[in-house]
Amino acid sequence: MSTEGDPGELAAQCRALADQHPGASLERRAWLCCGVALATTRTVPAARLVLAEVTVHQVRERAYELLDQLAQGAE
Fold this sequence. Notes:
Blueprint: H1 7-18, H2 26-39, H3 44-51, H4 57-74
């Protein structure tokens, strides 16, 4: 993804993707983490820095993967 992409739009995509997964699933939690990170930053690299603060290792690693996937699709 370009760092010029609209983080607000990407955050909305993350929320929509999270809604496709059950309650406390890893996928849902990771997508929601991506959404929050993108909604509170201006760039994808900054969102990655925010994700570094996620304390649950599995959620953090999956969120990194999902953010990368989202970034690839937005290029």
